[in-house]
Write a structure and sequence with these properties.
With 329 residues, the chain is an alpha/beta fold. The chain has twelve helices and ten strands. The protein has a single domain, classed as TIM Barrel, CATH 3.20.20.100. It is globular and about 55 Å long.
């Protein structure tokens, strides 16, 4: 698997990032270990998690795997902060008090002394950006965090954070983690051009649109149990539309014409966007992971990519909940 620089930083990551949100919910610990083993065997070095995934259990599973396999120096470890971690008023958001507490909890669960990439999970309307950035900068200076990044931000929000960092000569975001797939191209209008200009790496999640692009959801049929759409109202709002089925049915047919699976074509479609650094792929089973990894072998020309069924540039199929205050990735 190809190794790339993350934006203009000196940090090098694999061309794919393994998302871990299913670990502890959908994938038990043994399966999670097997998925991470297989990802490393394929040349993957980049793992992404978050403190709120499954109430912290996901970070604990990743931490135990890192310790048992002795691979801490061989991977780039990323996690995120923002979500609710307890009932008290200061147990969520991007205030200094929560950031300081949250990083200590993540370090403990991950069984590591330093997090390679610490990302804010979204914009916090209740915490001043300069307070958040100063707290993150302190973590870098203390050696608890190596790089900082962001997720689920609008272009103007990224610009505000970068302006403050540059003004104070604080650590700067090196990456953005946004939604991106053939069913959600909202970042193409402003965010991708701005990240390209500012030298931010782009590590999009949902390249398979939560599995929707695989064709597992059928028009007029009940949702399969224990899937993203059956388990999450946010995912149903994001993808469950008639337009989705129109595109997906054509997309599945296009995959067959290319001699690949829909998951492989969906990943290849994202990888063919030159401003993308490392898409985040997830899996509940080894079979799902192996299927998606096959997308690395398919290289689409710009003309081939443009010919594939997809929502129009800059558009998305359903309600995009990324910027809502209460909806978490």
């Amino acid at each position: 698997m190809q190794i790339l620089r993350l934006g203009r930083s000196g940090l090098k990551v694999s061309k794919l990032c393994l998302g871990t949100m299913t670990f502890g919910a959908g994938a038990d610990e043994a399966t999670a270990f097997a998925i991470m083993d297989r990802f490393m065997e394929a040349g993957g070095t980049f793992l992404d998690t978050a403190d709120v995934y499954n109430g912290g259990l996901t970070e604990e599973i990743v931490g135990r795997w890192i310790k048992e396999r002795g691979v801490r120096d061989k991977i780039v470890l990323a996690t995120k902060v923002y979500g609710t971690t307890g009932p008290a008023p200061n147990e969520r958001g991007l205030s200094r008090i929560h950031v300081q507490r949250a990083v200590e909890d993540s370090l403990r669960r991950l069984q590591t002394e330093v997090i390679d990439l610490y990302q804010i999970h979204r914009w916090d309307f209740d915490a001043p950006p300069d307070e958040t950035l100063e707290a993150l900068n302190d973590l870098v200076r203390q050696g608890k965090v190596r790089y900082i990044g962001c997720s689920n931000l609008r272009a103007w929000q990224i610009a505000e954070y970068l302006r403050i960092s540059d003004t104070h000569h604080w650590s700067r975001f090196v990456s953005l983690q946004p939604l991106y797939s053939a069913l959600n191209r909202s970042i193409e209008s402003e965010i991708l051009p701005y990240c390209d200009r500012q030298g931010l790496g782009v590590i999009p999640y949902n390249p398979l649109a939560g599995g929707v692009l695989t064709g597992k959801y059928k028009r007029g049929q009940p949702l399969p149990e224990e899937t993203r759409l059956s388990d999450s109202e946010a995912y149903r709002q994001r993808y469950y539309t008639e337009t989705t089925f129109d595109i997906v049915e054509a997309f599945v047919a296009a995959a067959e014409n290319h001699g690949v699976t829909p998951a492989q074509l969906a990943l290849a479609w994202v990888l063919a966007e030159p401003r993308i650094t490392a898409p985040i792929i997830g899996a509940r089973t080894l079979e799902q992971l192996d299927d998606t990894l096959g997308g690395l072998d398919l290289e689409l020309t710009p003309e081939e990519r443009d010919a594939l069924p997809a929502i129009g540039p800059g558009r998305w199929v359903g309600r995009d909940p990324v910027y809502d205050r209460e909806v978490q990735q």
